[in-house]
């Protein structure tokens, strides 16, 4: 797999096209990521790879059709379905409580909610309150956020699916025997979902079955892909809460972890021959950097790169390439540290790949070099600066 390579000439050309004075207004426009389509797959030169990608897309389309058909079968024509579940967060699925808590009625109520909202494909939606009542027949699988579209129905965004699987693993460990059987079955189905969602090149889309748009890109944003790999690492190890995972599932999990790490290594951006960091999203097929949401242009990201580096540093089976990737990533973080107000250091969430200066995006896809030029909603509604690399660098 070829590493993402940015030639100095290309970067200089891009920089010349979009000059960056000290207080420019709009310095560029964000380009949305391309979805995974048959036409894009048809352009893949290698026949074996082309076949693998085609099979993946067909499988994804079939999975979405099955999910939709299952929900439709629960609904009656002319009868309004139950309202969508209340919004929430992964905090409704605590993973750090003592082992005995996971055998309590409170924990089982959360687990029952999780099992009930699992999609036929095996994943879960995001931003749901798992402490609420179980899903009712005909109720949407996801918290709808006021949208009627099929949206984030199975995702690894915002810790979704990875948290559900881990919570179920904790509950089943506290309930050996028949009491934990339903939770074990749902957790295993969730692990299989992660395996099914992995791209042939080792990356993961944000949403599976594929939703289209930027959701199809390989997603490091908000630690989505790292979280998926970490769950599969636990499944592969078959220890602790994941000791119940059969070898028949642990074996493909090990292979998926290795493919995921290979994709991470291949995605690390080279600029002027030097490895740097990663972007929030990379193209599904080529792994080149791509934009995410309208205000997230293709750029090196500090926060997500820290968690990628932590994964690489602590992964078993260390290789020279993994060690070199971590060393280079650490060096890049040190080189991009900025003074923080009041002392200490901070990092821009997004760093331009040509100038190595902070950049900021707005909802209209405009790119700026000064956070104060953003609309108030975006200026105050996104973590444009982070301090998380500091602790990691202190330990490295």
From TrEMBL:
InterPro entries, A to Z: Pectate_lyase
Presence of keyword Chaperone: no
NCBIfam families hit by this protein: pec_lyase
Signal sequence region: 1-24
Keywords: Lyase, Signal
Location of region: Disordered: 73-92
EC number of this enzyme: 4.2.2.2
Domain of life: Bacteria
Name assigned to this protein: Pectate lyase
Gene transcribed to yield this protein: pelA
Gene3D superfamilies: 1.50.10.20
Any one GO molecular-function label of the UniProt entry: pectate lyase activity
Pfam families the record matches: Pec_lyase
């Amino acid at each position: 797999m070829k590493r993402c390579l940015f030639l100095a000439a290309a970067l200089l050309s891009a920089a010349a096209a979009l000059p960056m004075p000290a207080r420019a207004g709009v310095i560029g426009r964000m380009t949305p990521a391309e979805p995974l389509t048959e036409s894009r797959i048809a352009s893949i030169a290698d026949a074996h790879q082309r076949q693998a990608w085609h099979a993946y897309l067909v499988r994804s389309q079939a999975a979405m059709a099955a999910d939709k058909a299952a929900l439709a079968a629960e609904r009656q024509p002319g009868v309004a379905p139950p309202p969508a579940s209340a919004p929430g967060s992964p905090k409704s699925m605590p993973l750090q409580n003592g082992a005995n808590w996971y055998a309590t009625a409170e924990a089982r109520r959360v687990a029952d909610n999780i099992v009930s909202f699992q999609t036929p494909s095996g994943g879960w939606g995001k931003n749901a309150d798992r402490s609420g009542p179980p899903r009712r027949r005909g109720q949407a699988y996801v918290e709808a956020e006021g949208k009627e579209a099929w949206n984030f129905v199975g995702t690894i965004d915002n810790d979704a699916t990875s948290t559900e699987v881990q919570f179920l693993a904790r509950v089943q460990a506290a309930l050996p025997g028949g009491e934990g059987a339903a939770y074990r079955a749902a957790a295993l189905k969730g692990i299989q979902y992660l395996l099914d969602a992995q791209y042939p090149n080792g990356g993961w889309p944000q949403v599976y079955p594929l939703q289209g748009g930027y959701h199809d890109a390989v997603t490091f944003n908000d630690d989505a892909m790292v979280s998926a790999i970490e769950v599969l690492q636990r499944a592969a190890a078959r220890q602790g809460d994941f000791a119940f995972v059969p070898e028949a599932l642990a074996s493909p999990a090990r292979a998926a972890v290795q493919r995921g790490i290979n994709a991470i290594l291949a995605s690390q951006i080279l600029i002027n021959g030097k490895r740097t960091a990663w972007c929030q999203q990379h193209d599904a097929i080529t792994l080149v950097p791509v934009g995410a949401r309208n205000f997230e242009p293709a750029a090196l990201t500090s926060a997500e790169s820290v968690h990628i580096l932590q994964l690489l540093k602590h992964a078993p089976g260390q290789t020279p390439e993994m060690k070199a990737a971590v060393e280079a990533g650490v060096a890049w973080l040190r080189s991009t540290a900025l003074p923080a107000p009041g002392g200490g250091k901070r990092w821009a969430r997004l760093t331009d790949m040509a100038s190595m200066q902070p950049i900021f995006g707005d909802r209209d896809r405009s790119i700026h070099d000064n956070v104060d030029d953003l609309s108030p909603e975006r200026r105050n509604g996104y973590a444009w600066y982070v301090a998380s690399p500091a602790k990691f660098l202190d330990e490295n």
